[in-house]
Amino acid sequence: MADYDVIVAGGGLAGTITAQSISHYSNQNLKILVVDRNSEFLPGRKSLAGWVCGDACSKEAVDFMSNKIKVEWTRPEIEHDVKGVMAFSPDKETSIPFDGEGYMLNRQKLPEIQNERCKKMGIEFEYEINLTNLIYDDQQVIGIQGIDNKTKQPFKKTSKIVVDATGVTSTLRNGLQNSTKVEKRIDRRDLESTGRYIMYFDQGQKDLTEFDPDYCIIHLDQDIAPGGYGWVFPKGDNKVNIGLGVEKSFLDKRNKRLGKKDNVASLMKEYLERNKAIKNSRLSEDPEDINNNSGVFQVSVRRQNDCMVSGGFMLVGDSAWMPKAIDAGGIGPALIAGAIIGNNVVQAIEGNDVSEASLWQYNLDFIKEYGYKTAGLELFRALIQQMTNDQISYGMKHFLGNLDVESISKGEHPDFSGLGKFGMIIRGVMNKTVAKSLKYTSEQNQWLVEHYYNYPKDPSGFDEWDKTLHQRLGEALTKVEAFGN
Question: How far apart are CA 479 and CA 383, in angstroms?
Fold first, then answer.
């Protein structure tokens, strides 16, 4: 007999939402264990640097989670309300609103409160466990093993299902032995190195393109954040989460072009110093920030894993590479997936069938709710990475129509309706290249969305579907990369 019905590996946000979701859908009738490598006093911490994150999340995602599993977020885990996100072009002349209303979260406080809620629901925790492997019975995952860092003794627990929420570089996923469908390792080019500070500051020059207490600001700029973007997210009138993300190969090209040797840490410092709206900045020493006020981490910027289940095993959150490809936002998709997965887990266990085929519906449910748009956003991200600052500024100013802004505001790929305007004159060879590439990615996105809506209803159709996806997306990515040469 198994020790637990479900083991959730990883005690971060995706892990605890998943545990709460399973508890909700089972009416607290299943025995659930959450295993965390951190101490009870620093739950869900990503690394020694803390819970490195932009801390922002859309109200829509929080409401989705709350409506599905009846978990309400309030103060103090919600630190500040925002009206939306504004993305600025490199020349600051054009801004695009997206994501709608949202919240700035306190990522040190949130896991403490999440764990308290979980325990009230009867969910158990094991802390300071270093997981190394899954346990198998033929083609089924039946548990986890590792080392208990408190006692230095082997740790082993069995369950009917293991949900992997251990993060982007998951050891469990990397070593998965019972599936050829689940992708094990991520391409280095699909990772962004991110870093940020949580700071108090004195108000400098009033400039709403640099700091706005009501809006999260994103700066697209290939000189300051090559292959990524900078962000200035308000946590109050004089408190901010400020940081940036870069992709290594684009950082290397930028350094070569400018004759510099910058890394994420030096770029963060430069980005902070050049912000004229923020002066006399200092790291927050508030008790709820003290273990989390600066740090660097990695985040995926691609579509979710092509398959997120195998026999007795499921992926959620960063382990499934769910952060949005265009902005690396991981909290929203983790809330959506966590709220969905509980129903899939409970149905499989109550049906006494935790095979790959029985868990397959989770792939379909996530795609229907969120995952249908992610491959198109991956392609759009790859295109923006290839563009110069001048091209980005020109494209944002001239090629985005109202419908495109609406699409972006919903986190979807724009159609670039502005390109179809009768009599539109596009000046310059480079800008014609931009127009051509935007139109191309839009066409490919339409195909990709349709392909995801035709995701196979059971495992038997997966190999053909996946082969077609990789062929089409691979060709599109190669073509997009050629636009930058």
Answer: 9
